[in-house]
């Protein structure tokens, strides 16, 4: 029998960036907040021996235990969906900080075009630009409306950057810290892209260029360029994450506590409100009911959608009829690019930081003419110097054998003689790409697994081909002897790793017919339930999602505080 705990004002399910931001803002306003985190406590002190590529990057020390909780996957509805048994295409976080602990630190604001993509695309190119089976929709909020929240997140995280990109939205304040070091590798990219008439700029980075104290009094250290960012926690406290910023801020108020090893399996609903959640202690197996005046789903994209589905809150999307909103508009990300091999030059590729890089946006959003192209949007194209580690990074020219003495020789030779340009390509929502509950497989608590139905589209393939060609042109200008554009897209596979930039499923908007939550991230069907994360994105952009997720979390927190005073719908 479940034990019922004392009610709290605000309950967050998950304690990463979104849960931490909501907790900090609500606790500062005087609300009593509790965070339920199914993983364990951790922080900078736990990462003093983190430079172990095998333990963290290959064996996934910081990630979700797939023997207890995973997803099933299929390319289309005619296939049997099978469980993901090992981490592959994306890496699901677990524990304090969530995926924000092991991110690389690239921090972007989505473009003004992104928030009004349907109306702007139709206005410029007509309604039939990419076809009726793509579920394009505006977000219900504009870049200008979201700009103050972007700024607040950047000043909390101390983002390092420079405002020299002519294609992104206007900023109300400069970056809080200067850009990172411009290394010889980045200068090479800068010269080549400038020669081609493009507009390179230093990438906005949460690996900070200098020590910084944020407005809440949290201190973030300066990056040491050790090259252990993605898949690792930062031993220096120099990569902005929830556990060194917003979580301490929330705890210092005295209005916040975290309960670890707490796996939420159901959101409890009565009438037009939720009453709390049901969860299990993953260590003792005990079952609990946690009542709350406001429940906020702040876990990862996939889990937020799953919790709504198993709790029967909202209408599940049906690809046959087009009805329902829950689970629709799932998008991934397209990764065009090119690798160059330099026979007579060597680079310090083993050094760097997760977001040490230069970027061009000349082929992102609608910054270039799509009239004669069979796709919309594009990608940011970047050359990054994240610190390439020897187990996972073995670049060799295309005609090299995949094993044996010749492979070993080429692998050693090109370890410091290969550079890559990578694109984060936008993904448009398609009627057959969606999330639902699996009818066969269950997790360790008897709850159905989330089922992902997804494949690349002709839009994706066209975007990927075009931008891989542009990447190869830049690499040629950089002087590479051998150039290998990214292989053409075929069918999506759940392996190997590609990106953890999953979006959609709990889309935001100003119309309940096409969205799960309103523009305050308040659920249309339960006024005291809020859902915040990259699941709110109506499509995926040419950037990683964290900066936009952070902005939405600050807007969500403001909405919760308003709701606690007035009740009712916020729109």
Automatic annotation (TrEMBL):
Location of the Glucose-methanol-choline oxidoreductase C-terminal domain: 429-553
Signal peptide, first to last residue: none
Domain Glucose-methanol-choline oxidoreductase N-terminal: residue ranges: 221-329
Source species, domain of life: Bacteria
One MF annotation (Gene Ontology) recorded for this entry: flavin adenine dinucleotide binding
SUPFAM superfamilies: FAD-linked reductases, C-terminal domain, FAD/NAD(P)-binding domain
Keyword annotations: FAD, Flavoprotein, Oxidoreductase
Family of the protein in this entry: Belongs to the GMC oxidoreductase family.
Name this protein carries in UniProt: GMC family oxidoreductase
